[in-house]
Design brief:
By secondary structure, the protein is α+β, with helices and mostly antiparallel strands. It has two domains: about 70-215, Pdz3 Domain, CATH 2.30.42.10; about 215-375, no CATH class. It is built from twelve helices and eleven strands. The strands form four sheets. Strands 5-4-6-7 form a four-stranded antiparallel sheet. Strand 10 and strand 11 form a beta hairpin. Helix 3 crosses helix 8 (about 245-260). The longest helix is centred in the first third of the chain and has 37 residues, at about 20-55. The chain is globular and about 90 Å long. It starts with a helix and ends in a 10-residue tail after the last helix. Mean pLDDT is about 80; it is low at about 1-20.
Length: about 375
């Protein structure tokens, strides 16, 4: 006779316990619930996406532009863009050339001769501009693009599109070779060029130079309202070229940047930042602290505002000597304040004077220049 235990085993055999069965059922129901929740969530996401996109369905049947038409329009817009860029470059060059010649005796040893023409090579532009340059008259080779009338004469008449083949017997094939060949004439003030006006029509011209400050002006394609000097050249953004209302305002900006070069501000700033860098390195080595260049940046702040004020002062003299209207200078900074209200407030960490400080400082400089004119004194800044 089997005992109770054996009887129970016979009744249940090897079936799992009730607890295990309930656990499996629970997990199965949980998985079904997760799947149902995912399906519901997916449904609502799909529904919301449908509602949002259904409102964007097209409501009209418009004529579609063909690929050739779009390409033609692209080229037309590129031509307009390149033409405007060249126009701005020529404008900056013209105003800058006038200031450079009028201020030659302010530039100490930073002088050389200018010959009154603006040369350009389409290879210096980007690929898209190069492709359409010929359609606005800018052919391959180094070309005369603009000439100042005061440098023209019947014997040395230059025309837009003239290709420069040689300078003093040295071949010219791109802007780099042109720059190399013209260095001698820049120093002595005499230039002999071989030009090609039309195929098979080669002529020689001789030009006399005029002494000028050795600072060039160029335009870079950036939208910010800015201008900067690198110690030798001056660059204005296309944003600045849009901002200046007149050549008088442009002369104010160029004069300011020329003054930075004349006063050696970039060189002095680099020396100050080098001193700050040495402090940063010393702190890192001896204290084990990474300053993140803090002292390098702090080193330039005490003198930055003074450099800007000096450039405003000397730059106004540059513009005045070239015959530009300097009385609009304070209003220029008022307009700048309207565009950049943050420049109105004083800031101890700022690298530029506030616009009110600049406007008032320029008013005092204008009074000084006017007094010198009335007393028939040379219009020369008061250098220390």
């Amino acid at each position: 006779m089997r005992g109770i235990g054996e009887k129970n085993k016979a009744l249940t055999g090897d079936r799992p316990s009730c607890q295990a069965s309930i656990g499996r059922t629970f997990h199965r129901r949980e998985e079904e619930f997760r799947q149902m929740r995912f399906s519901t969530g997916f449904f609502w996401v799909a529904f919301v996406a449908f509602v949002l996109t259904s409102g964007c369905a097209t409501r009209v049947r418009r004529p579609a532009g063909s690929d050739p038409a779009i390409e033609m329009e692209r080229r037309e817009q590129l031509k307009l863009s390149l033409s405007l860029l060249l126009e701005r470059q020529v404008r900056a060059w013209k105003v800058g050339n006038r200031i450079r010649r009028a201020g030659a005796n302010l530039c100490a040893n930073d002088v050389r001769y200018t010959f009154g023409f603006f040369a350009v090579d389409r290879q210096t532009f980007g690929k898209e501009y190069r492709e359409i340059a010929g359609e606005i008259g800018l052919e391959s080779g180094v070309r005369i693009w603009e000439v100042l009338p005061e440098f023209q004469s019947p014997e040395t008449e230059l025309k837009r599109g003239d290709e420069i083949l040689e300078i003093d017997g040295e071949a010219v094939w791109d802007l780099r070779s042109f720059e190399r060949a013209i260095q001698g004439p820049f120093e002595i003030g005499q230039l002999r060029m071989k030009l090609r006006r039309t195929p098979g029509d080669e002529i020689f011209v001789h030009l006399d130079g005029a002494l000028a400050c050795d600072y060039r002006a160029g335009v870079v394609e950036k939208d910010g309202v800015n201008a900067f000097a690198d110690g030798k050249n001056v660059f204005l953004t296309t944003g600045m070229m849009r901002f200046v209302d007149s050549d008088d305002e442009l002369a104010l900006v160029l004069g300011h940047e020329f003054a930075h070069n004349r006063l050696g501000h970039l060189r002095q700033m680099r020396a100050q930042m080098l001193a700050g860098l040495l402090v940063d390195l010393a702190v890192a080595v001896f204290a084990g602290v990474d300053t993140g260049g803090l002292f390098t940046q702090l080193a330039r702040i005490p003198f930055s505002e003074e450099f800007e004020a000096e450039a405003d002062y000397v730059g106004l003299y540059f513009a005045a000597r070239a015959g530009y209207d300097i009385y609009m200078a304070p209003n220029f900074w008022r307009r700048m304040a309207v565009e950049h209200p943050g420049s109105i407030r004083e800031n101890m960490m700022a690298t530029h004077p506030s616009t009110p400080e600049r406007a008032v400082g320029l008013q005092k400089s204008i009074a000084e220049i006017e007094a010198k004119r009335i007393d028939d004194q040379p219009v020369i800044p008061e250098f220390k």
